[in-house]
Design brief:
The chain is an alpha/beta fold and about 325 residues long. It has a single domain, classed as UDP-N-acetylmuramoyl-L-alanine:D-glutamate ligase (3-Layer(aba) Sandwich). The chain is built from 12 helices and 14 strands. The strands form 2 sheets. A 9-stranded mixed beta sheet has the order 6-5-1-9-10-11-12-13-14, sandwiched between helices. The relative contact order is 0.15.
């Protein structure tokens, strides 16, 4: 039996979430519904404009949200990331520890600035992110914990790492170590912009084929350069043994290696889509590493995603995870 169910790698970002109107984007030259990388000066400028809004702070980054969800469901998790020896770095490390996630960070962190992500949520529940990566932009093979990868059932790779040369190389190295040691590899495309602008890099990270891909409809269509979802599904089969394509309020389609499975969405009044895909992946990974079928995993993940979009922030309270399992599994 492996020590960890899921070992994740990704950007470590302190999420700072604000509720805004669409006019905020037009007034400040922001592309809605996308994740945009910005420099520190631009983020400070936006923070000045957001001072009038109430904000919430949480440790984040796409893969971190997934790994923490897996842990709260009851999975054993390890997360490799990079934060600085600053106040936000301390906050981030403490948050991982509180969630029961083992990690490579702790004492001995380097000087620098811990990455921050401004998450702006509009009344239509869409989330728009402007991210200053800070020290996480230098995430590299040095942050990998090879023995923890070897002791895991799944390696989970965040697609956002493709935008950094050192991050992409770390993802490729982690996948190779996983393959050499019989560890399954899962990857999330993370954002349509990653597929649009960094497809070649994602192909490098995937290699010949991975065991599991998570993506949403827009990412799947962009990957296959098509507007037909059936064509996109056939394209995904060429690079993944299994996959999950999410469609927001329309549910999800899973491929279990043999069959396509339709997963219904759970009714939800969406107020914040931030973290929905991350939660789906975390719940799904928990379920398939704890003896549940793909269909059961999809239903658990679908309910978890519905719960998280019904509130502000990318996380659920620890106690809510068991409630989700009880509702789906009885």
């Amino acid at each position: 039996m492996k020590k960890y169910h899921v070992y994740g790698i990704g950007n470590a970002l302190v999420d700072m979430e604000f509720e805004v109107e669409d006019s905020f984007f037009s007034d400040n030259g922001i592309d809605k519904s996308l994740m945009t990388l910005v420099d520190e000066e631009r983020q400070h400028e936006l923070m000045g404009h957001l001072d009038a809004f109430d904000g919430k702070k949480a440790s984040g980054g796409s893969a971190a949200n997934t790994i923490i969800a897996n842990s709260y469901f009851g999975g054993k998790s390890f997360y490799s990331c990079k934060v600085a020896s600053d106040e936000l770095g301390d906050f981030y490390v403490n948050d991982l520890q509180q969630a029961g996630v083992d990690s490579n960070v702790g004492d001995g962190r380097k000087e620098g600035i811990t990455g921050k992500c401004l998450v702006m949520v509009t009344p239509d529940a869409e989330r728009t992110m402007n991210t200053y990566l800070g020290i996480t932009s230098t995430f590299s093979v040095d942050e990998l914990h090879l023995s923890a990868i070897k002791e895991s059932e799944y390696l989970y790779i965040e697609g956002y790492l493709v935008s950094s040369d050192t991050g992409r190389h770390a993802a490729i190295e982690a996948r190779k170590v996983a393959e050499e040691n019989g560890v399954k590899t899962a990857i999330t495309f993370s954002d349509p912009a990653m597929v649009q602008f960094f497809k070649d890099g994602l192909k490098e990270m995937i290699g010949t084929k991975v065991d599991l891909i998570f993506c949403n409809e827009a990412e799947a269509l962009s990957w296959a350069d098509t507007d037909d979802i059936d064509t996109a599904i056939e394209s995904l089969k060429q690079v993944a043994n299994t996959f999950a394509v999410t469609f927001g309020p329309k549910g999800a389609i899973l491929f279990d290696g043999k069959h396509l499975l339709d997963i219904s969405a759970h009714e939800a009044k969406a107020v914040d889509s931030n973290g929905a895909g991350d939660m789906f992946a975390g719940a799904f990974l928990y379920a398939i590493t704890h003896g549940h079928s793909f269909y059961e995993a999809g239903n658990i993940a679908s309910l978890a995603a519905a719960k998280v979009v019904s509130q502000f922030g990318p996380r659920l309270a620890a106690s809510e995870h068991q409630d989700i399992l009880d509702m789906v599994l009885g």
